[in-house]
Design a protein that fits this description.
- It is globular and about 55 Å long.
- 48% of the residues lie in helices and 14% in strands.
- The protein has a single domain (7-243), classed as NAD(P)-binding Rossmann-like Domain (Rossmann fold), CATH 3.40.50.
- The longest helix is centred in the middle third of the chain and has 29 residues, at 95-123.
- It has a 7-stranded parallel beta sheet with strand order 3-2-1-4-5-6-7, sandwiched between helices.
- β1, α1 (17-29) and β2 (31-37) form a beta-alpha-beta unit.
- The protein is built from 8 helices and 7 strands, in the order βαββαβαβαβααβαα.
- It has helices at 17-29, 58-72, 95-123, 144-164, 198-213, 218-230, 242-253, 256-266, and strands at residues 7-11, 31-37, 49-52, 77-80, 126-131, 169-176, 237-240.
- By secondary structure, the chain is an alpha/beta fold.
- InterPro entries: KR_dom, NAD(P)-bd_dom_sf, SDR_fam, SDR_oxidoreductase.
- Keywords: Oxidoreductase, Plasmid.
- This is Short-chain dehydrogenase protein.
- Residues 7-199 form the Ketoreductase domain.
- Belongs to the short-chain dehydrogenases/reductases (SDR) family.
Length: 271
């Protein structure tokens, strides 16, 4: 039983993985939680109300927010979790594929955030937590387009936080490393494969599979999201898990040439 009422939370991409676990964690902490999925999701018995929403569709996003506000009257927390991955050489994706990736991972965040902000401004308070990645601040060979979307979310979130503080709204980033979810199984593949990248792409697939096996449980990320959602003085960034904390530290304090060499070695690339 919840011991407190922390308000109304909206979590996108809550049908599986990090979003699913996060929605449950927020509910257990005292939030009234609404989760979204692109298609009608099965009923959840953990107190999370599921709604359908396609974050790439303006009308779908507006309807989602209207429905939550009509039923709950307010939105105190938005967790922008919905996203997709893409593994392959940067030049192996068509412009249409790249645009589709950005439409989900970047413009989807813009759409949902913009739809929620008027209600938060009226309330005079709110919290927005955007899911980034360690690939939002380090180089990510063969994840160049995915990494680009997370770099974009990093810059957007930092800037937005400064814009919204006057309205009592704060924005934070949560940066996981490898997490044991179905992310790897659901990675999109390039739509214009080039033979010259076959060997490196296959090698990177192996690296990702092994890393996922040793990755953090999604509960680790959910814990970081809950901290970002409830900290009285929210931080700009929350590293989710030991590896994410280590990578964040090394990126800031290790000389660039040494970081570059170590990254290539760990990824099996010629040093």
């Amino acid at each position: 039983m919840n011991k407190t009422n922390l308000g109304v939370a909206l979590v996108t991409g809550a049908s599986t993985g990090i979003g699913y676990v996060t929605a449950a964690a927020l509910h257990n902490a005292g939030f009234r939680v609404y989760g979204t999925s692109r298609r009608l999701a099965a009923h959840r018995s953990d107190g999370v109300s599921m709604l359908t929403c396609d974050v790439t569709d303006d009308a779908s996003v507006v309807k989602l927010v209207d429905d939550v506000l009509e039923e709950a009257g307010r939105i105190d927390l938005l967790v922008n979790n919905a996203g997709m991955g893409l593994l392959g050489g940067a030049e192996e994706s068509s412009m249409n594929q790249a645009k589709s990736l950005f439409d989900v991972n970047v413009f989807g965040v813009f759409r949902v955030t913009n739809a929620v902000l008027p209600a938060m401004r009226r309330q005079g308070k709110g919290r927005i937590v955007n899911l980034s990645s360690v690939q939002g601040f380090i180089p990510a060979p063969y994840f160049a387009l995915y990494s680009s979307t997370k770099h974009a979310i990093e810059g957007y979130s930092e800037s937005l936080d400064h814009e919204l503080r006057a309205f009592g709204i704060r924005v934070s980033l949560v940066e996981p490393a490898y997490t044991r979810t179905s992310f790897e199984d659901n990675l999109a593949r390039p739509d214009q494969l080039l033979d010259i990248y076959d060997s490196a792409r296959a090698g990177m697939n192996v690296v990702v599979q092994k890393a996922m096996e040793k990755g953090d449980a999604p509960e680790v990320v959910a814990k970081a999201i809950l901290a970002a959602a409830t900290d009285p003085a929210p931080k700009r960034r929350y590293a989710a898990g030991k590896m994410a904390r280590q990578v964040s530290f090394l990126r800031r304090f290790v000389p660039a040439f040494a970081f570059d060499k170590s990254l290539r070695k760990q990824l099996g690339l010629p040093v």
